[in-house]
Design a protein that fits this description.
The structure holds two protein chains of two kinds. By secondary structure, chain A is of the alpha/beta class. Helix content of chain A is 36%, strand content 26%. In chain A, a hairpin with a 2-residue loop joins strand 9 and strand 10. Chain B starts with a helix and ends with a helix. Chain B has one domain. Chain B is mainly α. Classes of the chains: A alpha/beta, B mainly alpha.
């Protein structure tokens, strides 16, 4: 049963890659304005789950919904509510940040002054405002990650789906992007995959811990710490014991 | 929210901008211009009509604007070659270089993305092709004070050829993982596979009207000049002679190329929709 209070619903989601089971009947729900981190060991299926939510790969079975809209059946409509960073995105090297964001903004129905003003706003937010008209081919990994943040926030989506969003950033960049996420979580649903538990604690209230494509635990960080009488790292290590 | 048609215009616009920023666009443009200047020099400097004539066989080839146009327009084939390089990585690079992680999570259909990219590659090639035809027309006006009507038919077939070449390149770009592989596969189809089949059929007296490179040769058959008479008895080396003794029908060739374009573009859309960003 889907309700409008659930931004993201994953139901019995399975995904095989050439016979390898990456997701095994994964089910979880993220309520509106909740901030949930998807954590787990390497190869647990975190990125696979996010890719299915973003319409980048097809599930072998099961369903995924964004704001009640089936991602597989109505991909475009479902994605209109989402801002995403998946894996380590690359940008068209011949374009500038301004052109890239104009392109993506227009595809999302933005135009004119609204788009121009929003581009300036998000580029300032990610501290790329001095690089507006420089071709991306000159950008470092960290600068591209900042631009990835800018494109995810450009259309002010109610839902953010982020895969290792601070990957490639220097310590200052990590803090700055974390601050952006902290602000965003007040009014948006944030669902993000991360290996960095210290970051997870600062940004999220709940975690979904998965391993071998299966959900091990889905609870608030505070409750898990209390239940296991350990830090989040301790909880993680205990629950993923034996994992590669 | 935009309609898919509006999104198509946006994709085409920005993909075209990308093409115009690439060095290969300007490289192809310079090659076409230089090749045409070279042809003017060679045609006039070596007096090609006389060189092609074989009085002992009773073949006398007179200089004419039509013959000159054939040589000039054949140089625009470099524009068609450029189309392969524009299109080869159009789809494959989204997966190979991971730019698809930014583009695909947007609310736009993959079919719109493929068609937009296709149109952008077509328009970029059309710019080079048009410049080639304008240079041809200017040269004809200066040297012969007139332009043969056949040049319009030739331009129409060149455009159909670009559509066909782009379709085949897009098909491979959607099918294969790398842009380089797609480019090479398209070139192999046009420069190796098709000519081998073509020469085999020609030697046995069958017209290879359905082959893309044979249909593409129709760019030179809109001037009512007999290929067999000009090239058939004069080219040395033997291997190419069989291929030159038939003249492709412009109308049939035009539709053959459009069918190639349509079928391969539809296949490209189907493949891109199924392709996963793994």
């Amino acid at each position: 049963m889907l309700t409008m209070h659930e931004s993201i619903v994953i139901e019995n989601l399975s995904k095989y890659y050439n016979g390898f089971l990456a997701l095994d009947k994964l089910s979880l729900k993220v309520k509106s304005n909740e901030d949930v981190a998807l954590v787990g060991p390497n190869g647990a299926g975190k990125t696979t789950a996010l890719k299915i939510l973003c319409g980048l790969i097809h599930p072998s079975s099961g369903a995924a919904y964004i704001n009640g809209i089936n991602v597989v059946g109505e991909r475009e409509r479902a994605l209109s509510n989402v801002g995403a960073i998946v894996e380590t995105p690359e940008f068209y090297q011949f374009l500038t940040p301004n052109e890239t964001l104009s392109y993506l903004g227009r595809l999302r129905g933005m135009d004119g002054r609204e788009l121009k003003s929003r581009i300036n706003e998000v580029l300032k937010l990610v501290k790329l405002d001095e690089w507006v008209n420089i071709r991306i081919e000159k950008f470092s990994r960290g600068m591209k990650q900042r631009l990835a943040f800018a494109q995810a926030l450009l259309h002010d989506p109610p839902i953010l789906i982020l895969d290792e969003p601070t990957l490639g950033l220097d310590p200052r960049g990590m803090v700055e992007m974390r601050d952006i996420l902290k602000k965003a979580r007040k009014e948006k649903t944030v669902f993000f995959a991360s290996h960095m538990l210290a970051e997870v604690v600062k940004v999220c209230d709940k975690i979904a811990l998965i391993d071998h494509g299966r959900l091990l635990v889905y609870d608030s960080i505070a409750h898990l710490k209390k239940k296991y009488r350990k830090s989040l790292e301790g909880v993680y290590l205990k629950l993923t014991e034996g994992a590669i | 929210m935009n309609t898919e048609f509006e999104k198509l215009k946006i994709v085409t616009r920005y993909e075209l901008l990308k093409q115009f920023r690439r060095k290969r666009f300007y490289g192809a443009l310079v090659i076409v211009i230089l090749a045409q200047i070279l042809v003017i020099g060679l045609y006039k400097g070596l007096d090609l009509p006389t060189a092609l004539s074989k009085p002992s066989l009773g073949i006398i080839i007179a200089d004419s604007p039509e013959l000159f146009a054939i040589f000039m327009v054949s140089m625009t084939s470099f524009a068609v070659l450029a189309a392969v390089f524009f299109a080869g990585d159009a789809i494959a690079s989204e997966f190979e270089h991971k730019t698809g992680y930014v583009l695909f999570p947007n609310p736009v259909k993959r079919s719109t993305i493929v068609i937009g990219k296709y149109l952008a590659c077509f328009l970029a090639t059309l710019v080079i092709l048009s410049i080639g035809y304008v240079i041809s027309a200017i040269a004809l006006l200066v040297l012969y004070q007139g332009i043969p009507v056949g040049i319009l038919g030739s331009l129409a077939i060149s455009i159909a050829l670009v559509f066909g070449v782009l379709g085949i390149a897009f098909f491979f770009s959607s099918l294969l993982k790398g842009g380089m592989g797609a480019t090479i596969a398209t070139l192999i189809i046009f420069m190796v596979v098709s000519p081998i089949i073509r020469s085999s059929l020609s030697y046995t007296g069958h017209e290879p009207w359905f082959l893309p490179d044979y249909a593409g040769d129709a760019v030179s058959s809109t001037y009512n000049i007999n290929f067999a008479q000009i090239f058939g008895g004069t080219l040395s080396g033997g291997g190419m002679q069989g291929m030159m003794t038939m003249t492709p029908n412009p109308v049939v060739s035009f539709f053959v190329l459009l069918i190639y374009a349509l079928v391969t573009l539809l296949a490209s859309i189907w493949l891109t929709k199924r392709k996963e960003m793994t």
